[in-house]
Write a structure and sequence with these properties.
Immunoglobulin-like; four-stranded mixed β-sheet; 1 helix; 8% helix
Length: 189
């Protein structure tokens, strides 16, 4: 079996050359020797060997990023502090939840603080808008959901139409019995 053998010292020298280069020092080259032994194995070393070929290895190319200025403020822009919601998402159903032959699925949201009068709440099921229940703006119902996977998303817009809060979609699954599976637990055999 043919292979390549690197001396640990060569690997260390190449790494050291890269480190020196990263520190901004002159870019020295590393001298390495390459030879093939009687079994056809290629060897690399930093010490000369009879019949070895002398190689010059340049240090690793490095990149130094420009430092980021700390002058930027971590506070929100003036006037936007009132638009910050600490929680904005789907509370029910939970992510990856499965429903077996439901007539309807209740949906509830987690929104803190409460929705401000000037903000607008949008809840979508697979991209289509859902209407809240009349008695509670944070509760919805999905009637007779189709079989398969579904995604619920929540977005809050301010009066100017800017998104002030949004949640990643929550995916849930609906399973329904099939005529092809008479042993289905939802059939009540």
């Amino acid at each position: 079996m043919k292979g390549v053998v690197w001396s640990l010292r060569v690997v260390a020298l190449v790494a050291l050359a890269g480190a020196v280069s990263a520190l901004g020092a002159d870019q020295p080259t590393t001298t390495t020797y390459r030879w093939v032994d009687a079994q056809g194995v290629v060897h690399y070393s930093d010490t000369p060997q009879p019949g070895a070929e002398k190689l010059k290895i340049q240090p690793a190319q490095t990149y130094s990023a420009t430092p980021v200025s700390n002058q930027a403020s971590s506070r929100p822009a003036q006037g936007t502090e009132a638009n910050v919601y600490q929680a904005c998402g789907v509370q029910q159903p939970t992510a990856e939840q499965s429903y077996f032959s439901p007539q309807e699925i209740p949906v509830s949201l987690n929104l803190r603080p409460a929705l401000r009068p000037e903000d607008r709440l949008s809840v979508t099921l697979d991209g289509a808008a859902l209407q809240p229940l009349e008695d509670s703006p944070l509760h919805f119902r999905i009637a007779e959901p189709d079989r398969g996977s579904h995604t619920l998303s929540v977005t809050v817009h301010d009066a100017a139409g800017n998104v002030v809060c949004s949640s990643p979609g929550v995916t849930f699954y609906v399973q329904r019995p099939s005529r092809l599976t008479p042993q289905s637990p939802t059939r009540g055999h």
